[in-house]
Write a structure and sequence with these properties.
The structure holds 2 protein chains of 2 kinds. By secondary structure, chain A is an alpha+beta fold. Chain A folds into 3 domains: 114 residues, Acyl-CoA dehydrogenase/oxidase, N-terminal domain (Butyryl-Coa Dehydrogenase, subunit A, domain 1, Orthogonal Bundle), CATH 1.10.540.10; 99 residues, Butyryl-CoA Dehydrogenase, subunit A, domain 2; 154 residues, Butyryl-CoA Dehydrogenase, subunit A, domain 3 (Up-down Bundle). In chain A, 53% of the residues lie in helices and 17% in strands. Chain A is built from 11 helices and 10 strands. Chain A has a 4-stranded mixed β-sheet. A 4-stranded antiparallel β-sheet of chain A has the order 2-3-7-6, with no helix packed on it. In chain A, helix 1 runs parallel beside helix 4, helix 5 runs antiparallel to helix 7 and helix 7 runs antiparallel to helix 8. The N terminus of chain B is likely disordered. Chain B contains 12 helices and 10 strands. By secondary structure, chain B is an alpha+beta fold. In chain B, a hairpin with a 5-residue loop joins strand 6 and strand 7. Chain B has 3 domains: 83 residues, no CATH class; 110 residues, Butyryl-CoA Dehydrogenase, subunit A, domain 2 (Beta Barrel); 138 residues, Butyryl-CoA Dehydrogenase, subunit A, domain 3. In chain B, the strands form 3 sheets. A 4-stranded mixed β-sheet of chain B has the order 1-4-5-8. In chain B, strands 2-3-7-6 form a 4-stranded antiparallel β-sheet, with no helix packed on it. Classes of the chains: A alpha+beta, B alpha+beta. Chains A and B meet through helix 7, strand 10, helix 8, helix 9 and helix 11 of A and helix 9, helix 10 and helix 12 of B.
């Protein structure tokens, strides 16, 4: 029972994907330093998608996660390398809840227009599901802060125009906006499985003037944890797009591949495996729909984290399992670089690990949900 | 136009209706019968049957002209949810859920007049005679025969896994009436009084030690022609007409959630939540059930909108039953040596029965279409894979 605008959005995404996305393009962009196509990014901006969660007062569409998830799922189905979730959801959500209004008036419209691609540098150690202990220091001085430390696993770092950097001033969380060419900032890119990169940011006394501090203290911490939970749900929608396409490819292949004189899809052993993957996809779909609806009602911080962990745990596990088994269903051809199904496995692997894998999210769920009920 | 009165439950808001049902169950349902881990026997549940009957609530799914509550799909789901929430046992209710709706659709005027009021009052208790020793998953290969002899059918053969036949007064049967026709084509649907000469009922003890199901033998049993429901040789169609709530209800997360609650209480009592290995496994199963609840809720919404359920609902049954089994596996494992001691025990102040839930989770992937049959259905009708 989707409202009319979500149906229109779905059609618009499908149309864009069929016109602009292709596996050939995905393959051509694999391993390049720029990672994605800035023209495609600007086209996404012209469709309004880069401002989908940004409030209207800053030039965005002011829509909810349900809408962001439609775009993310559609793009992921086609393996688009554009960092929609990293930039247009994670970084945008974080900045939106900050309280430096002048900075928001400057940056958010540039996010929406696709002119300033921004990544959120929040993480420092692997397996994190929230900022936790932050080692990166923000040393106060008269005009602002000097940042020193290292941020890791930054998605969307390749070709980013700027970063929102999470640092710590004494006990307070600081969200600071830093341009990619800032003095003292170096960015190393590490290739990940799906042809994209994670950035490692080395901050050596990077000066952040007061007017570039987006928020600090409780406001910054709240903006960060909300953005992480919401982006985690949208990344789950990406996983859903990837697993759905991988399952379709497997089922299609089972209908056409003939061995022993019959389509292999007529063999019960394979049919039942395919059904088990279908059940995982159905569970992921049901949890995702419910989670997105609930997150759009702005539940309490604890409830929000529980929902985000539940959906990411299921989608990560289902996504990787479906894509992994897709290789087996395809046989040797599935192991070749030329055949597309392997690209789906690689994307599923990266999305499952990014923002916390299934094991990490189940642990966070246990900590929050079991403590609450006990 | 129906007038708005206290018994037009569909006129209540969902919340009003839920409150009324909940308060009735809480005040009237016997405490000792809540969350029974096994099937309830008729002698235990007769008082509750009478309570529901007197309230006019014994047949929530039946139309009001036949003494039912006439609930619409949305209210029906609420009624079932509240039953499960309070742990209300489903009394030998196949007459209410199956025979009633079948007779209303296919029965003659005389059959409806005779059977419906008696089924509602509990004077007649029905059991289902479908499975046979050589017709389980392949039900359509059933061989129990009914041969016309004047005004009677002569029934010969054997039914098995007939749940609570020894508590029942009547059986509804699938029998072969045409040996020449292909499988499903030669089957008819009969209603038979279990006191008819030639019928022998022999209970079968299940692995939980309970006499839950039975053999039912038919030796030249004479059954009046009037016992035929629907047309001769069209019994398969009659039996298959029952879909909807049965398929939804079997995938409900409530029963496993109750077992999960016991496991959680035990885990807390034994301090197991400090054990990372236990927490990981517990959380995985808890999430399997949470996610089941999301999938179930999606199908409930579909039913509430009045849309028929498709073959895809089989995924709900598979997941619900297999998750329930994994949960009871963990329950027994958590009990360690205590886990294999029979009956209810007190462990660190928590009363718990490890084995009964474990046993009763076993046939869950066998009855109502085994998990393998459900996978065949999904493969054929949903994934559209070629036939085997």
């Amino acid at each position: 029972m989707a409202p009319e605008h979500t149906e229109l959005l779905r059609e618009s995404v499908a149309d864009f994907v069929s016109r602009r996305m292709s596996i050939t393009r995905v393959r051509a962009l694999r391993g390049t330093g720029h990672e994605y196509d800035r023209d495609v990014w600007r086209e996404m901006a012209s469709l309004g998608w880069l401002g989908i969660v940004i409030p209207e007062e800053h030039g965005g569409m002011g829509l909810g996660l349900i809408d962001a998830a439609i775009v993310a799922e559609g793009l992921a189905r086609s393996l688009a390398p554009e960092p929609f979730t990293a930039a247009a959801v994670l970084a945008a959500e974080a900045l939106t809840l900050c309280d430096n209004e002048a900075l928001k008036r400057e940056l958010l419209p540039a996010f929406v227009a696709g002119e300033h691609v921004c990544a959120l540098a929040w993480q420092e150690s692997p397996g994190a599901t929230d900022a936790g202990h932050i080692a990166t220091r923000a040393m106060p001085f008269e005009g602002g802060y000097r940042l020193s430390g290292m941020k890791r696993y930054v998605a969307g770092a390749a070709g980013a125009d700027g970063y929102v950097i999470v640092a710590r001033a004494d006990t307070a969380v600081v969200l600071a906006c830093v341009d990619s060419n800032a003095a003292g900032l170096t960015v190393d890119l590490e290739a990940v499985a799906d042809g994209r990169q994670f950035g490692t940011l080395h901050l050596d006394d990077v000066i952040v003037p007061r007017e570039r501090v987006a928020a600090s203290g409780d406001t910054a911490a709240a903006a960060l944890s909300r953005a992480l939970d919401r982006a985690t749900a949208v990344a789950s929608a990406e996983l859903y797009g990837v697993m759905s396409r991988a399952l379709e490819m497997s089922v299609e292949y089972m209908k056409t591949r003939v061995q022993f004189g019959r389509p292999i899809g007529s063999f019960q052993a394979l049919q039942h495996r395919a059904v088990d993957l279908y059940i995982q996809q159905q569970l992921a779909s049901a949890v995702l729909d419910q989670s997105l609806r609930e997150l759009d009602t702005e539940p309490s911080a604890t409830q929000r984290a529980i929902i985000a962990s539940r959906v990411k745990a299921r989608c990560s596990e289902a996504g990787v399992r479906i894509a992994r088994e897709a290789i087996q269903m395809h046989g040797a051809i599935g192991f070749t670089d030329d055949y597309d199904v392997g690209l789906y496995l690689k994307r599923a692997l990266v999305l499952a690990a990014w923002l916390g894998n299934a094991v990490r999210h189940r642990r966070r769920y246990a900590t929050l949900a079991l403590k609450r009920e006990g | 136009m129906a007038t708005l009165d206290a018994t037009d439950y569909n006129a209540l808001t969902n919340d009003e209706f839920r409150r009324e049902v909940r308060s009735f169950f809480e005040s009237r349902y016997p405490e000792a019968l809540r969350y029974l881990p096994r099937r309830v026997r008729i002698r235990e549940i007769r008082d509750w049957w009478n309570t529901l009957y007197e309230k006019g609530w014994i047949a929530p799914n039946w139309p009001r002209e036949w003494g039912g509550m006439g609930l619409d799909a949305g209210k029906m789901v609420i009624f079932l949810e509240e039953m499960e929430r309070h742990g209300v046992a489903r009394a030998a209710d196949q007459g209410i859920t199956q025979v009633g709706p079948i007779l209303m659709r296919y029965g003659t005027g005389a059959q409806k007049e005779y059977y419906l009021p008696r089924t509602r009052s509990g004077e007649i208790i029905w059991c289902q005679g479908y499975s046979e020793p050589n017709a389980g998953s392949d039900l359509a290969s059933l061989q129990t025969s009914a041969v016309l002899d004047g005004d009677h059918f002569i029934v010969n053969g054997q039914k098995i896994w007939t749940t609570l036949a020894h508590d029942s007064t009547h059986i509804y049967l699938l029998v072969r009436t045409d040996r020449e026709a292909k499988k499903q084509k030669g089957i008819s649907f009969l209603l038979v009084d279990l006191t008819t000469p030639g019928i022998t009922i022999r209970p079968i003890r299940n692995i939980a030690g309970h006499e839950e199901f039975c053999h039912v033998f038919f030796d030249n049993v004479r059954v009046s022609k009037d016992a035929l429901v629907g047309k001769l040789n069209e019994g398969w169609t009659v039996a298959k007409a029952l879909l909807g709530f049965e398929r939804l209800n079997i995938g409900s997360p409530r029963r496993p959630q109750y077992a999960l609650m016991r496991l959680e209480m035990l885990g807390r009592a034994k301090g197991l939540f400090d054990d990372a290995g236990f927490v990981d496994r517990f959380t995985q199963i808890k999430l399997d059930l949470e996610d089941l609840a999301s999938l179930y809720a999606r199908y409930v919404e579909q039913v509430k909108r009045g849309e028929p359920l498709g073959h895809d609902v089989s995924s709900l049954k598979i997941w619900a039953m297999e998750a329930w089994q994994r949960l009871t596996d963990l329950l027994v494992e958590t009990g360690a040596e205590d886990g294999v001691i029979e009956g209810a025990q007190e462990i660190a102040g928590v009363e718990i029965d490890f084995l009964t839930p474990f046993y009763y989770a076993r046939p869950a992937t066998i009855y109502g279409g085994s998990s393998e049959i459900q996978r065949n259905i999904l493969s054929k009708y949903v994934l559209d894979l070629p036939s085997q």
